[in-house]
Amino acid sequence: MLDYRLRKKGSEGILTIEGDLNMTSAAELHAVLRQAMGNGSSHIIIDLGAVKTADVNLFQILCHANRKAAERGKGLTIMGALPDPLGSLIDMAGPDILGSCTICPGKSCIWKCCVSRV
Asked: What CATH number did the domain enclosing 59 receive?
């Protein structure tokens, strides 16, 4: 089950997510991120500190949200460590993730903050 809280602090929107992020919660997470981007904030911080587990669906959803945010002139940042198994996968892939992807506009890749070897 996915639980979230969205609050606004100045020009920032802070989205705190709790629970398991997987295929079952993917559609709900998409809707929550759309809501966060539509709340008038110029920058959205996604706090994953209370997420128990996350799979590759989170990776895909956040990549998509980051591209949409950049298209709208907004920023998107991850706060907190990425939960496993996704956190371990991204750490193992390291800079290869960033070097192979050319989709994000203007070097706005959301994963730069999360890869420890970059």
From this structure: 3.30.750.24
- φ, ψ of residue 67 to 5 degrees: the values are -65, -45
> What CA–CA distances, in Å, run from 86 to 31, 53, 118?
21, 8, 17
Rounded to an integer, the average pLDDT of 114-118 is 46
Taking the C-alpha atoms of residue 25 and residue 96, their distance in angstroms, rounded to an integer, is 27
Virtual CA dihedral for 73, 41, 48, 57, nearest 10 degrees? -50
Reported as a single tens digit per residue, the pLDDT across 23-53 is 899 999 999 998 988 888 899 999 988 888 8
Q: Report phi then psi at 5, rounded to 5.
A: -140, 130
User: Is residue 68 situated within a structural domain?
Assistant: yes
> pLDDT (tens digit, 9 = 90+) per residue, 45-84?
999 888 888 888 888 888 889 888 888 888 888 887 777 7
Total structural domains in the chain? 1
Q: How confident is the model at residue 16 (pLDDT cuts 50, 70, 90)?
A: very high
- What is the spatial distance between Cα 6 and Cα 45, in angstroms, rounded to a whole number? 10
